[in-house]
Amino acid sequence: MAYVSPKEFALIFGVVAACYWNSLFCGFVFDDVSAILDNKDLSHKSYRPLTVFTFRLNYLFSELNAISYHFLNVIFHGIVCIIFLKVCKLFLDNKSSLVASLLFAVHPIHTEAVTGVVGRAELLSSIFFLAAFLSYTRSRGPENTIVWTPIAATVCLVAVATLCKEQGVTVVGICCVYEVFIAQGYTVPILWYTVLHILQGKGSIPYCMLQMLLKLIVLMFSTLLLVVIRVQVIQSQLPVFTRFDNPAAVSPSPVRQLTFNYLLPVNAWLLLNPSELCCDWTMGTIPLVESMLDVRNIATVTFFCFLGTLVVFSLRYPGDSSKTVLMFLPFIPAVKPFFLLAVVAERVLYVPSMGFCMLVAHGWKKLSSNR
């Protein structure tokens, strides 16, 4: 397990405190009103009992004093930064890991998640999200044996993360990528050759692959069970959006698909250049993409080409750079399901920004070493 020194701990919490101390005096705004002042636990059929429980603890100790709610958010953000540093140290050197963690700590895209009280769902979910991944990295024993205790802990932590916010379940995808391409060291050509060799009857499934499949089956089955339970709790009802808050969701084809795809590069650009942030992206802030000839489609095509290049590079070639890119890519779907991304919401980029910060720190290291 990666070690965080007292100096690193103090530095990160000091930076977080310096960056967000003024958020203590923000009061309750926007969604905070319905989630806290009006005491509505559910919003758009969300089921986040552990997040609501922390709100009730705040109320128990300070009633509706907004300072205590914001203070706890800042603490949670600091904890996420510390755990994220431990994750980075699995793939980067100490200096690059610290750069990634500090960048994550001060990234402007986190303003909504940290300063908005309801953003606590992202913060809490991220704590258990990262803890689940760290637990899974300890599931490989000597000679590729399986250590079941960390896997059981991973499943429990995934469940807790999901009870904070539904995106917590996406850490399972990151664990699967880690197991196949990092822990086992496979590349796509090796996997293809091995599978082809087995299908042709030229050999049996290697023992290490059997162990890997067993771990992934247990992990995926447990996750599926969690999803089924959650669906039953919310009675299989999906969010209902209006043209006011989600215009693309009620638009015909191909406007809906073009807009959905365009919002992915918009989100990516906010991570790279967060110079134009907005407290509310509804009410048609981003006009619909209504034609194939819309110049904004160039941004969509460019984004998917760049993403495809990263995927091909990281899956075909071994090496530290490929491993870092591989651990960046799975963070992309760690947001609301694709069909819900019909508006830009900055707080849902809290987890994807982890992969972005990791990639930037790795690129910075490479540029520094080549000078």
From TrEMBL:
GO biological process: protein O-linked glycosylation via mannose
Transmembrane segments: 9-30, 67-92, 113-134, 146-164, 171-192, 212-233, 298-318, 338-361
InterPro entries, per database record: TMTC_DUF1736
UniProtKB keywords: Membrane, Repeat, TPR repeat, Transmembrane, Transmembrane helix
Domain DUF1736 residue range list: 236-307
GO terms under cellular component: endoplasmic reticulum
PANTHER family registered for this protein in UniProt: PROTEIN O-MANNOSYL-TRANSFERASE TMTC3 (PTHR44395:SF1), PTHR44395
Protein's name according to its UniProt entry: DUF1736 domain-containing protein
Protein species of origin: Naja naja
